[in-house]
Amino acid sequence: QVQLVESGGGLVQAGDSLRLSCAASGRTFNNYHMSWFRQAPGKEREFVAAIFWSGSTTYYTDSVKGRFTISRDIARNTVYLQMNSLKPEDTAVYYCAASPAGSLRVMSSRWYDYWGQGTQVTVSS
Question: What residues contact residue 31 under an 8 Å CB cut-off, 6+ apart?
């Protein structure tokens, strides 16, 4: 059974940093994009960042470029999201997800087969 398990969320002040982790298991992800999405109360789920498991190509939404970094450790089957210079508008539940689709569709949540349970990130002003 495929599992994606997030950890690392918490309550921080604006300007602080957090690193989220996503432990992946249950299959190989050689042909998958691994991504982070987030969802704030009352809003739609939003794409944050993606990385191709085998090739390490990365994608970011404009609002996090220069602040967030997605990476993966193949040996540990883990995806990370390093979040620096956090802002109150980053407050959301952050979800790890995996998609077999090509890079054209990485920003759309409907193309993802597997999802984690989410981890809460709260940034106070």
Answer: 53, 54, 100
Distance of alpha carbon 44 from alpha carbon 91, whole angstroms:
13
Q: Can you give the length of the chain in residues?
A: 125
The answer to whether the beta carbons of residues 103 and 10 sit under 8 Å apart is no
Work out the pLDDT band at 3, boundaries 50, 70, 90: very high
Q: Which of 119, 115, 104 is nearest to 35 (CA)?
A: 115
The answer to whether residues 48 and 60 touch, using CB atoms and an 8 Å cutoff, is yes
User: What is the spatial distance between Cα 80 and Cα 70, in angstroms, rounded to a whole number?
Assistant: 6
Contact 100, 110 (CB under 8 A): no
How high is the pLDDT of residue 8? 98
**CA dist., res. 117 & res. 75, Å (int):** 23
Residue 16 pLDDT greater than 90, yes or no: yes
With beta carbons less than 8 A apart as the criterion, state whether 44 and 101 touch.
Answer: no
The residue behind tokens 């990485």 is 106
CA-to-CA distance for 105 and 16, rounded, in angstroms?
A: 31
